[in-house]
Specification:
heterodimer; A: mainly alpha; B: mainly alpha; transmembrane helix (chain B); transmembrane (chain B)
Chain lengths: ~140, ~500
């Protein structure tokens, strides 16, 4: 069933891709092929392979239980927050929180999570910023 | 003799303190990454690319660092295969078959050191193979025009599908998806924006480094989260090694095996689409058929340990040949290495050898040096790496995730790229669940633009005549190989692949 859904989604993607390829505005200075042809070929391959996937599905993969899916979803949300807040609060603080969260969700105890979070954050800061001179996000506190 | 003087120049470049240190660092990190289940050569190299790039390393030093990681991971993969019966990375899968039984018999130290020697032999011979074969391939590649290049790219995608997945349709889907992603951004030939949907960040196109790190490194973090596998695989097990050097008789017994499988592995590596996993698989299968008279393979036969290790290391060297000479990588990790070159504005392919001989020969010399370093690290110091196996993934994975973020943020300094990377991470996770191979996606995003440019150049030169694509004997030959490479696995490959895939789960999606 998963593969059938995947195939249909892939087919819709291919159709969408083909339509937006057709919508590309051509410049008056174009080569003999133009900017549309290659995307159209790709859309065709994408669509054909999606149809084959939908028609001849593989064995069902093992999907995790709902709880685990929520887990992955929550991690994604935390990571997006991390990405957006990085320039706001600075690298060290944001990273400590994000790493501690991931460590906690992977099964560390509360104390271990905090240690992993702070350790990862400071470790990366020292190695990459202080030693190697990589520029990391600077928060209001300067780190 | 020209080769040897070039090689001498290469050594002059590689033998600087900076490059030696980078090689040492790369070998060390690579062995660790190879040894840890969950981190393999392709995601190991992927995490380190943005770092090498943002640190402002030049082309040669970056490549030395990252190929040392690559070679190191090939060595390291065997450690957990032998001690824990869990392959540290994909190519080390076959090493479990005889390595772990040897360890159970109390011969763990012998198995580790013997496989270290086998790895060395494989990698050493393959580096010589690289030296002699790559320039020959360059001579052929210099005859290529745009039409032939287009056919070559198609060949790479079609043969890659043959080995990287059990389902050809899914490989084709992955390749098309990658190529589609590459078309995002302003069209290089006419300057019109494509698939940008008005988002200014997309005008430059997607950064392939963002895609690579997301697909390879972050998806791994999601897999661990999903399984809530936070412990260390080594917990509660004794990692006893015993003696560190194999008896001479064992080495002697295995020498013919190592030489044969090095050759075979190298060939498997050079073939487009095949990688180190295939190298170790066919090496083991062939040796089993050839020398296993008493049916001892699978019960801890030393030859069964030497064969796949020599094979996969030789294949790793072999896979560099098409990457350097043609600019078309044959495996996941070499695709990632290609990304390094592209990020540094160096176009691999035949011109690399004439325009940047320092890069090529410096790299080759560094491979020799790295190989000796790895031999030294992996035999007397192997105990150090077995301790790494004790690090639980609940500590390791947050570090992996954060280093990925740092690397990407270091390149662009934009939150947008980080969000795109997370998107790729989720996509990678879903696709791995569905057994869609990730390597063709990466290859597509990397090669998409030059594939399209070659297509348009070829057709434009011939005044819009599309038949020009199959106009020369060389192009026809390439297309035929491509079609055979795509169709053949459909007929005979199912059996071989079913065997190869037996021992793995979603790891297969990032097979190398």
């Amino acid at each position: 069933m998963s593969d059938r859904i995947f195939g249909v989604v892939g087919l819709l993607l291919a159709i969408g891709f083909a339509f937006s390829a057709l919508a590309i505005e051509e410049s008056f200075l174009s080569d003999a092929v133009g900017p549309k042809a290659f995307p159209m070929i790709i859309a065709a391959i994408l669509g054909l392979s999606s149809i084959v996937i939908a028609v001849r599905p593989d064995a069902e993969p093992e999907w995790p239980a709902l709880g685990r899916l929520v887990e992955v979803g929550a991690a994604v949300v935390v990571m997006i927050f991390y990405a957006e807040l990085l320039p706001v609060v600075g690298f060290v603080i944001a990273t400590a929180f994000a790493a501690a969260y991931l460590a906690w969700r992977l099964g560390s105890g509360p104390i271990e999570s905090v240690i992993v979070g702070i350790g990862t954050s400071l470790g990366i800061y020292v190695i990459f910023h202080l030693v190697l001179g990589l520029s990391l996000a600077r928060g209001p506190l300067g780190f | 003799m020209e080769t040897f003087s070039s090689l001498a120049d290469g050594f002059a470049i590689a033998l600087t303190w900076q490059n030696l240190l980078l090689a040492l660092l790369g070998c060390f990190l690579g062995t660790i990454m190879g040894a840890l289940p969950g981190l393999g050569p392709s995601n190991g190299v992927a995490i380190l690319i943005p770092l090498a790039f943002t640190l402002g390393l030049g082309a040669t030093p970056s490549l030395i660092l990252l190929t040392s990681v690559y070679y190191g991971a090939m060595y390291g993969g065997r450690i957990s295969s032998i001690l824990l019966n869990i392959p540290g990375d994909e190519p080390a899968m076959m090493t479990c078959l005889d390595g772990h039984p040897m360890a159970k018999k109390g011969l763990a130290g012998e198995a580790l050191s013997l496989s270290g020697i086998a790895s060395f032999v494989g990698a050493f011979l393959a580096t010589w193979g690289l030296i002699f074969l790559a320039p020959q391939l360059v001579k052929i590649a210099l005859l290529f025009g745009p039409a032939e290049y287009f056919a070559l790219f198609a060949l790479a995608f079609m043969t890659l599908g043959g080995v990287s997945s059990t389902n050809q349709a899914k490989s084709a889907f992955a390749a098309a998806l990658g190529l589609g992603l590459a078309t995002i951004g302003v069209d290089t030939q006419t300057g019109v924006p494509r698939f940008t949907f008005g988002e200014v960040h997309l005008y430059d196109g997607l950064d392939f480094l963002v895609a690579i790190v997301g697909l390879f490194a972050l998806s791994e973090v999601f897999i661990f989260l999903e399984r809530r596998h936070g412990g260390s695989d080594a917990e509660g097990r004794q990692l006893k090694i015993g003696r560190l050097y194999p008896p001479m008789s064992m080495v002697k017994q295995c020498t013919p095996t190592m030489l044969r499988t090095s050759f075979l592995g190298f060939l498997a590596g050079v073939l487009p689409g095949a990688g180190a996993s295939l190298g170790s698989f066919i090496s083991y299968s062939m040796e089993k058929r050839l020398v296993d008279k008493e049916n001892t393979f699978g019960t801890g036969d030393p030859r069964g340990v030497a064969a796949p290790e020599a094979g996969n290391n030789a294949a790793a060297g072999g896979a560099l040949v098409p990457m350097l000479a043609l600019g078309v990588p044959g495996s996941g990790t070499t695709a990632v290495l290609l990304a390094v070159l592209l990020a540094l504005n160096i176009t691999p392919g035949p011109l690399l050898f004439t325009q940047n001989p320092d890069v090529v020969w410096g790299l080759i010399a560094a491979l020799f040096i790295a190989n000796f370093m790895l031999l030294a690290m992996n035999i007397p110091m192997v105990g150090l790496f077995t301790r790494v196996l004790m690090v639980p993934s609940r500590i390791l994975m947050p570090i992996v995730a954060m280093v990925s973020f740092v690397g990407i943020y270091g390149i662009s300094g934009s939150s947008f790229d980080l969000v795109v990377m997370i998107g790729f991470g989720v996509m990678g996770w879903v696709l791995r669940k569905l057994d869609v191979p990730l390597v063709p996606i990466i290859l597509g995003t990397l090669l998409g633009n030059s594939m399209e440019n070659n297509l348009r150049r070829a057709v434009t030169i011939d005044n819009g005549n599309w038949w020009t694509l199959v106009d020369s004997p060389l192009a026809i030959a390439l297309w035929s190989i491509a079609i055979i490479g795509f169709v053949l696995p459909l007929i005979v490959g199912a059996r071989v692949k079913a065997k190869m895939h037996q021992r793995r789960d979603e790891e297969g999606a990032i097979s190398d």
